[in-house]
Amino acid sequence: MPDPPPWDIPPSWTPALDAARAGGTLFLIGGVDSGKSTLAAILANAAIEAGRTTAVVDADTGQSDIGPPTCVGMARVVDPIHSLDTLPADAIDFVGSSSPVRHLLGATASAYAMTAAARETGADTIIVDTTGLISGGVARALKSAKIRLLDPDIVIVLQSESEAEHLLTPYAHRSRPRIVRLRQSRRARSRTRDQRAGRRQAKFREYFADGREAVIEWDQVPMDNTAWTTGEPAPDHVRAFAEERVECEVHYAEARADGLLLIVSGNPSAAGLRSLSPDFGGPARAIEVGVLDRLLVGLLGDRGETLALGIIEAVDFRSRTLTIFTPLTALAAAKSLRLGAVRLTRDCSELGWIDPADLA
């Protein structure tokens, strides 16, 4: 294997390299295009050269190097690497969005799951690369939650000036985690929005290159992040009754302990939804059927681990089946689905994003 490239490694980065060589969990913070992924690769090389068992957790769901976008990926590092995107993923965990905004719980849970998976491999140096979201209250909430759950030994902050300092204030007088501040490399280069979108499409195309159509019964793979499939299918006369009230087509109705769920075409009448509440023990909620078209999903295994991603291409409410395009061949291993927030064509063009609230 060729030697790693001669990176521009400033002498001031020595404390971070020493930390990687010493072992522990290293948590990287830096803005968009600050060079965090390159830093992660440099640190991984330093760790394995020091004889450390090393793993990288890639929690940048928008510009993933390890695994497909919308996922947190984990990979072991056994030989020197040129970049993180040369590493095959040992495990992925589906967040469902290329941005952590409005997905803070999922992004944090996935980062925790993949860090735990890295620890289970026996890695004694774990490098956690994060998103470039560093501004504002959402960034503080996300980074704080991840640091609390992942419990890193060291937080390494890569910045050009002091743009990430507000994230570090809570740790100013604490012995753990230790903070290491680095200046951004002169070689860091920015990507345009179009370039970032094009990179996501290329990564998705690579992932779905061996995809195929599969039909699954949703009773066998219930959803884990939506009200859909959490109740009992309502009979046709209930669906027809609801259709009259909400003044739009109702494809499917499901009765739950806390109300009625409808999957509809069009904009349901808000007054009609409210009028259904007394009859069904709680508020009626509606999912517009269009949000399910080409929706990216995660297929989960027996322990909730992400086995693969898929794209919903058709929903048959009569047979209670989904047609999904996925590279997963062992479909029987899928025990549930996690609905994402990205709508994706088969050629992996992004059609748009949905709000988690759209899934009721």
Overview of the structural elements:
This protein is an alpha/beta fold and 360 residues long. The protein folds into two domains: 11-207, Rossmann fold, CATH 3.40.50.300; 211-360, Pre-mRNA cleavage complex subunit Clp1, C-terminal domain (Elongation Factor Tu (Ef-tu), domain 3, Beta Barrel). It is 26% helix and 29% strand. The chain contains seven helices and 17 strands. The protein has helices spanning 14-22, 36-49, 104-120, 136-150, 193-207, 236-246, 270-280; strands spanning 24-30, 54-58, 71-77, 91-94, 125-129, 154-159, 178-183, 212-217, 232-233, 249-256, 259-265, 284-288, 295-300, 306-316, 321-326, 336-344, 350-353. The strands form three sheets. Strands 4-3-2-5-1-6-7 form a seven-stranded mixed sheet, with helices on both faces. The N and C termini lie far apart (50 Å). The relative contact order is 0.13. The model has no long low-confidence stretch (mean pLDDT 94).
